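Re: that backbone. C-alpha cells:
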C-alpha cells in the first residue's frame, strides 16, 4: 500500500483559499486547453494528468466548490451564533428561554424543506448537470440571506417579523439542500482516483470556514457594540455580506465545465431521465445506509460547531464573547484536521475512519461535556478542540464516502436526498432538541447523550456498508 501524497494543485489552492480569485489572471477566464475546446495547445500549468484534467482546471474546481459552500453555510453560522440577539428582536414578549427556543424552531423548520430540495436539486444535478444546479443554488441562497438583513423587527411590524423570517429561512433551506451534495460530487468526479477523500474534504473545510467567519464576526460585534446597538442594527451586518460573496461564487462556477464523469454520460446520451425514481428502485439499500451514516454528522455538526456558543453562554453562564472566542479557536484546528482526515481516508479507507469517529463519540462525549461544566476557559477550549477533532474524522470522510456509494447516474440525487433527509430530521433540530432536552430534564449533559445516540446509529450504518475508496467511480 503506497502512502498518500498531497496533490500539488490542491496545496496551491488551499494556500489561497481565502481568496479564490487570486493567482494567475487567466484563471478567471474559465477552463483552458482541450477541456475548453480551444485546441491541443496547453500551458504547462494546465497540462492534463492521465485522467485528462489539467491542474489549473482542478484548482478552479476547488476554488468554486470552496467559496460556494462557504457562502451557503456562513449564514447558518451567523444565525446560530447570534440566536440570542435575534430571539430578542423577533420574539421580544417571550421569556428568554422561550424566545431562544422559538428562534431555534425557525432554524429547524427551515430544514424541513431540505428533503424536498434534495429531490429537486438531485434531479437537476443528475439530469441537467452539476454546474447548473450549483450555480442556481448559490444565487438563491445569497439573495435570501441578504433579505434577512432587511426584515424589520417585532417592534416595527409585529407578528409579520417572525413570519417573514420563517419564509426566508425556508428559501435558504431549499437552496442549501443542493449545495453540500453537489459540491462533493463535483470534487469527487474531478479528483484523481487516489485523492478523492482529500479533494472532497474541501467541502467540510469550506463549511467550517464559513462558521469561522461567522464566529469571528459575532465575537467582534458583541465585543464592540452595546446590547442595544446589537439589537437595533449590529446583528444585520453579517447578513449583508451574503450578496457580494454569492455573486463571486456564482461567477467562478459559471466559468467551469461540468465534470468529466457527467459529460461522458451525456455524450453517450445515458443520463437518467428520472434519476430519483431510478435511485429508489435500484439503490434503496445504499440510501438507507447513507441516511444512517449521516446521522452523526447531522447532530454533531450543529451541536459542536453551531449550538456550542449558545450552550456555553446560555446554559453554563460563560460570557458571550469568551464563548465565541473558544469556538473560534476550535474551528481553526477543525479546518486543519479536516484535510488530514481526507488523506487518512484515502490511505486507510472510508469505513475505518468513520467507524473510529463513531466509537470515539460513544466513549468520550459525556466526559467531554462534564469538563465543559467546569467553567475553566482553557479546559473548555481544549475540550472543544477534542470534540472538533473527533468530528473531523466523520466530516472529512463523509463527502467522499457518500459520493462513492452511488453511481454517476444518480450520485447527486442519492447524496442530496440521504444527506438532507438526515439533516432535516436530526441536524436542523439539534439546537432546538438540545435546548428542549435541557429544559425537560434540568440536565446540562442532555446534548451529550443525544450525540452518543447519533453515534451508535451511524456506527451500525457504516458497518453494514462496503468499502469504496479503492474502487473506480461507478457509472451505472
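Recovered sequence:
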Amino acid at each position: 500500500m503506497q502512502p498518500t501524497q498531497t496533490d500539488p494543485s490542491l496545496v496551491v489552492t488551499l494556500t489561497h483559499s481565502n481568496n479564490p480569485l487570486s493567482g494567475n489572471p487567466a484563471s478567471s477566464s474559465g477552463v483552458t486547453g482541450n477541456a475548453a475546446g480551444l485546441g491541443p495547445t496547453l500551458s504547462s500549468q494546465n497540462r492534463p494528468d492521465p485522467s485528462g484534467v489539467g491542474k489549473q482546471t482542478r484548482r478552479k474546481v476547488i476554488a468554486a466548490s470552496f467559496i460556494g459552500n462557504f457562502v451557503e453555510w456562513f449564514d447558518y453560522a451567523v444565525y446560530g451564533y447570534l440566536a440570542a440577539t435575534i430571539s430578542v428582536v423577533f420574539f421580544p414578549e417571550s421569556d428568554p428561554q422561550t424566545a431562544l427556543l422559538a428562534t431555534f424552531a425557525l432554524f429547524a423548520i427551515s430544514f424541513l424543506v431540505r428533503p424536498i430540495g434534495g429531490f429537486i436539486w438531485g434531479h437537476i444535478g443528475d439530469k441537467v448537470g452539476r454546474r447548473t444546479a450549483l450555480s442556481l443554488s448559490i444565487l438563491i441562497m445569497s439573495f435570501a440571506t441578504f433579505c434577512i438583513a432587511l426584515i424589520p423587527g417585532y417592534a416595527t411590524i409585529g407578528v409579520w417579523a417572525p413570519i417573514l423570517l420563517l419564509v426566508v429561512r425556508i428559501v435558504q433551506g431549499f437552496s442549501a439542500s443542493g449545495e453540500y451534495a453537489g459540491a462533493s460530487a463535483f470534487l469527487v468526479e474531478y479528483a484523481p482516483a487516489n485523492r478523492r477523500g482529500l479533494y472532497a474534504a474541501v467541502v467540510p473545510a469550506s463549511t467550517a470556514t464559513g462558521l469561522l467567519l461567522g464566529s469571528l464576526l459575532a465575537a467582534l460585534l458583541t465585543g464592540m457594540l452595546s446590547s442595544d446597538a446589537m439589537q437595533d442594527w449590529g446583528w444585520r451586518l453579517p447578513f449583508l455580506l451574503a450578496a457580494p460573496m454569492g455573486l463571486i461564487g456564482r461567477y467562478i462556477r459559471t466559468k467551469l465545465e461540468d465534470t468529466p464523469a457527467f459529460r461522458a454520460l451525456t455524450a453517450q446520451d445515458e443520463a437518467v431521465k428520472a434519476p430519483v425514481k431510478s435511485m429508489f428502485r435500484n439503490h434503496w439499500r445504499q440510501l438507507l445506509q447513507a441516511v444512517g451514516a449521516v446521522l452523526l454528522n447531522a447532530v454533531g455538526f450543529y451541536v459542536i460547531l453551531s449550538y456550542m456558543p449558545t450552550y456555553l453562554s446560555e446554559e453554563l453562564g460563560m460570557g458571550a464573547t469568551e464563548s465565541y472566542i473558544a469556538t473560534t479557536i476550535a474551528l481553526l484546528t477543525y479546518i486543519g484536521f479536516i484535510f488530514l482526515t481526507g488523506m487518512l481516508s484515502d490511505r486507510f479507507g472510508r469505513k475505518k475512519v468513520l467507524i473510529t469517529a463513531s466509537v470515539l463519540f460513544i466513549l468520550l462525549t459525556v466526559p467531554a461535556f462534564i469538563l465543559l461544566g467546569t467553567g475553566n476557559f482553557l479546559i473548555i477550549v481544549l475540550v472543544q478542540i477534542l470534540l472538533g477533532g473527533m468530528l473531523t474524522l466523520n466530516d472529512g470522510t463523509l463527502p467522499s464516502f457518500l459520493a462513492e456509494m452511488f453511481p454517476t447516474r444518480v450520485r447527486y440525487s442519492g447524496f442530496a436526498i440521504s444527506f438532507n433527509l438526515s439533516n432535516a430530521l436530526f441536524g436542523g433540530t439539534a439546537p432546538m432538541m438540545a435546548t428542549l432536552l435541557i429544559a425537560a430534564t434540568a440536565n446540562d449533559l442532555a446534548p451529550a447523550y443525544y450525540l452518543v445516540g447519533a453515534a451508535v446509529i451511524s456506527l451500525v450504518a457504516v458497518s453494514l456498508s462496503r468499502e469504496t475508496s479503492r474502487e473506480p467511480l461507478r457509472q451505472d
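The two ends are 28 Å apart (CA to CA). The chain is about 75% helix and 0% strand.
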